[in-house]
Design goal:
Layout (H helix, E strand, L loop, with lengths): L2 H9 L2 H13 L2 E2 H8 L10 H12 L3 E3 L15 E4 L1 H9 L16 H22 L4 E7 L5 E4 L5 E4 L3 E7 L2 E9 L6 H17 L1 H6 L4 E6 L2 H12 L9 E5 L3 H7 L1 H12 L5
Parallel strand pairs: 8-9, 9-10
Antiparallel strand pairs: 1-3, 2-3, 4-7, 5-6, 7-8
Helix pairs in contact: 2-5, 6-10, 7-9, 10-11
Length: 279
């Protein structure tokens, strides 16, 4: 541990360390996401001064930085700032955990598509955390890429990697649920989504997940609109190669409900509503 890292650690509170670790975990977070995660701010509410001051202080210490791009443009104000961890910040995270020293990563400005997807993945995890705080479920484990990825030997002998955006284990009503989460931004044709679902089917056929963890997780696609949800649901339902009951396609506002009720009950309720039956 260098003298600089040791000196910085003496200046950082537990919340400071949690903020740095959180930004590092997701690569990018907006000011509002940081405020909701670490200052108990509700969605779509004003960011408290203490959150802005905390981030400004961490930036002055050189452990976090903002991108040139803002989400929502200049009119978004401080809420639109996108934060990332510096190389010094990554050393702080490593020094405060049992992880080995992380490789140095050059600072860069990501493409808008990559940034929006990364922030959407972070938002999905944040919604799950907020659902847990409301008592709808308990998040027992959360894996972000690459920890959520699964590797196995394919039929040709090559290593194949399945790459969910998130892996989760939740508990609600005395039942434990396991999830693979895919965040869709409606930037790819439905055929690409089906191809990814078939990749899950191939991994399921190996039996590795079932052997190591007892059950194969449900796959939930988080999509940006009801129209996209209907489109992907219909494509999945029409493909006989897919185990239908193991998939759900939802908008993010329904994510807490599926975590609370479980996949089977949620899908049954959704089917009843679509068929005009009372829910």
């Amino acid at each position: 541990m260098t003298d600089r890292i040791d000196a910085l650690l003496q200046q950082l509170s537990q919340r400071d360390l949690a903020i740095i670790a959180g930004v590092n975990q997701y690569r990018f977070l907006t000011t509002q996401q940081v405020a909701r995660r670490h200052f108990d701010v509700l969605p779509d509410t004003a960011i408290p001064r203490r959150a802005n001051h905390a981030l400004a202080r961490l930036r002055s210490l050189g452990v976090v930085a903002t991108l040139n791009r803002r989400i929502g443009g200049v009119r978004a104000g401080s809420a639109g700032y996108v934060w990332t961890v510096t190389d010094v910040g990554r050393q702080i995270v490593a020094a405060n955990s049992s992880d080995v020293r992380p490789p140095r990563i050059r600072a860069y400005e990501p493409s808008l598509a990559f940034l929006e997807h990364t922030l959407a993945v972070a938002e999905t995890a944040l919604v799950a955390d907020e659902a847990a705080r409301r008592g709808l479920c308990h998040v027992e484990a959360l894996e972000v890429e690459p920890e959520a990825w699964r590797s196995y030997v394919g039929p040709t002998g090559a290593i194949v990697r399945l790459k969910p955006d998130l892996g989760m284990v939740t508990e609600a009503g005395g039942f434990e649920d396991r999830w693979f989460i895919e965040v869709d931004r409606d930037t790819e044709p439905p055929s690409r989504i089906i191809a990814k679902c078939l990749a899950y089917e191939r991994y399921r056929a190996t039996g590795i997940e079932q052997r190591d963890r007892g059950i194969f997780p449900a796959t939930v696609w988080i999509v940006p609109s009801p129209r996209r949800a209907t489109q992907l649901r219909e494509r999945i339902a029409s493909d006989s190669r897919l185990l239908q009951q193991n998939y759900a396609v939802i908008t993010l506002d329904k994510f807490p409900a599926i975590l609370s009720s479980g996949l089977e009950d949620f899908n049954q309720k959704e089917s009843g509503q679509k068929g005009g039956e009372p829910s």
